[in-house]
Amino acid sequence: MTNGRVEVITSVQRRRRWSAAEKQRIVAASLERGAVASAVAREAGIHVSQLFRWRQELCRREEAPSTFAAVTMSPEPVSMPALPVPPGAIEIEFANGARLRITGAVEAGTISATIAALAQGERRR
C-alpha cells in the first residue's frame, strides 16, 4: 500500500538568476587549462549547454563596423621609378618548327617585331 510518507510542496521554485559576476566566474573556470566543461557546469548546478551559451555571450568578439578609407585623386599622373627587370628567359616554338629564345631584358617592340618576322617567314632546312 503506501509507506506513510507525505511530501508537502509549499512554494513554486523559480528560475535562478545569475549575476554577471557569477557567469564570468563560471565561464573563466571552464576556460582554465585542463578544465572539463561538464564538470564545471555540474559543480555550478547548471546544464553544460547553459555554460556554452554563456561562453558564447561573454567571449563573443564584436565585429568592427565596416568603414571606407579616404582616397585623394591626384590631377597629374605621378611617375614611378622604373623597377629593375630580373633576368629571365622566354622560349617560343612556332607551328612551322621555328624557335625563338630570348634571355635577359628586351624591349617589347623588339620581341613583337621578331615574332612577326618568324611567323611570316618559312623555315629554312
Structural class computed from helices and strand pairing: mainly alpha
Q: Would you report the number of β strands?
A: 2
Sequence stretches where pLDDT stays below 50 over 5 or more residues: none
- Average of pLDDT: 78
| H/E element order | HHHEEH
Q: Alpha-carbon distance between the termini?
A: 117 Å
Q: How does the major sheet shape up?
A: 2 strands, antiparallel
Estimated share of beta-strand residues:
5-15%
Which percent bin holds the helix content?
25-40%
Count of DSSP-assigned helices: 4
Shape: elongated
Rounded to the nearest angstrom, the radius of gyration is 39 Å
Strand order of the largest sheet: 1-2
Descriptive report:
The protein has 125 residues and is mainly alpha-helical. It is built from four helices and two strands. It has helices at residues 20-30, 37-44, 48-59, 108-120; strands spanning 89-93, 99-103. A two-stranded antiparallel ribbon has the order 1-2. Helix 1 (20-30) crosses helix 3 (48-59) and helix 2 (37-44) packs across helix 3 (48-59). The protein starts with 19 loop residues before the first helix and ends in a 5-residue tail after the last helix.
